[in-house]
Amino acid sequence: MPSRRGVGSVQVMIDLAQEHGLSITQCLQQTGISPAQLADPTTQVEASQELQVIDNLVRALPDVKGLGLQAGMRYQLSTLGIWGFAIISSATVRAAIDVALRFADLSLVLAKYSLHENEDSAEFHIDIAHIPAHLRQFVLERQFLITLLLIRSMMSEQIIRPRDIYLTVDTLPFTQMPAIIQESRLHLGASANRLVFDRAVLDRATPQANAATAQFCVRQCEELLDQRKQQSGFAGQVRALLLAHIGQMPSLQAAAQHFNMSPRTFRRRLDDEQASFRALLEETRAGVAMELLATAQLSVESVAERMGYAETASFIHAFKRWTGSTPGKYRAAQARLSS
């Protein structure tokens, strides 16, 4: 289970809890997370802290059924960062699963994933045995919905459905069953959590596959993972921070706070490496935007949303400033080059 992760996942759950009448103080009890840290999008938390938030919700809301499902429905692809983009741009379902497993340490998942191939089937296992027993229903419900989100985002309108779904929980209290699993055989109270597909699905091409985008995203994942492991090069660490928050880039002040520095010291550290925060910010935004636009299935509006822009016009203006071209013209030019 990946340990460090952005605070965005915690914020999703707190937003849900507040709708059920809980206060931020109740949600953060015994987590070591302060309201100020929660408000800082660059804050990194431990998996154990996120589990404590879940514990607080489960204990405070024992009569709310499907709480984990409600949480899972709130996640979007942009919440998953570069890890999610790397998955959906992979050439095949098998390649997407390989990327998901390879870079799981960059994700917000609490479960452990694994793939098991049989003669005529492929089983995608979701292991929650390491999760405290009283939290397993919530974690599984949430993880199940995030898995469906990834499948739906990866395959677009070409839905792939599990042949069988085995879940260890006794109930799955959806208010409305997702279309993606309506034709699947659902087995509750199973001994293990697994989604069973026809093995041929693994070699199925994905609608949003793009070699350049996939290569770019995997390279960014590799660099981000290396930064987390080595923590070398301050400019690299800042760039890793930005990549981890694609949909909500931090301000200079927020980034400085993340590294426990004053803005002045933060700027000086970057100056020492002939870098600037603005340049890193623009470089990261432009690079991710250009690679996402190279994927023909993504509209300009979709890229703008995934990049965290509330208005498409603002994204178009920024992209033209970065590249001298509009997103539409850039995408058309890339399409001509690849044809």
UniProtKB/TrEMBL annotation:
<dbReference type="GO" id="GO:0000976">
    <property type="term" value="F:transcription cis-regulatory region binding"/>
</dbReference>
<dbReference type="GO" id="GO:0009893">
    <property type="term" value="P:positive regulation of metabolic process"/>
</dbReference>
<dbReference type="InterPro" id="IPR018062">
    <property type="entry name" value="HTH_AraC-typ_CS"/>
</dbReference>
<dbReference type="InterPro" id="IPR018060">
    <property type="entry name" value="HTH_AraC"/>
</dbReference>
<dbReference type="Pfam" id="PF12625">
    <property type="entry name" value="Arabinose_bd"/>
</dbReference>
<keyword id="KW-0805">Transcription regulation</keyword>
<keyword id="KW-0238">DNA-binding</keyword>
<dbReference type="InterPro" id="IPR009057">
    <property type="entry name" value="Homeodomain-like_sf"/>
</dbReference>
<keyword id="KW-0804">Transcription</keyword>
<dbReference type="InterPro" id="IPR032687">
    <property type="entry name" value="AraC-type_N"/>
</dbReference>
<protein>
    <submittedName>
        <fullName>AraC-type DNA-binding protein</fullName>
    </submittedName>
</protein>
<dbReference type="GO" id="GO:0005829">
    <property type="term" value="C:cytosol"/>
</dbReference>
<dbReference type="InterPro" id="IPR020449">
    <property type="entry name" value="Tscrpt_reg_AraC-type_HTH"/>
</dbReference>
<dbReference type="GO" id="GO:0003700">
    <property type="term" value="F:DNA-binding transcription factor activity"/>
</dbReference>
<dbReference type="Pfam" id="PF12833">
    <property type="entry name" value="HTH_18"/>
</dbReference>
<feature type="domain" description="HTH araC/xylS-type">
    <location>
        <begin position="236"/>
        <end position="333"/>
    </location>
</feature>
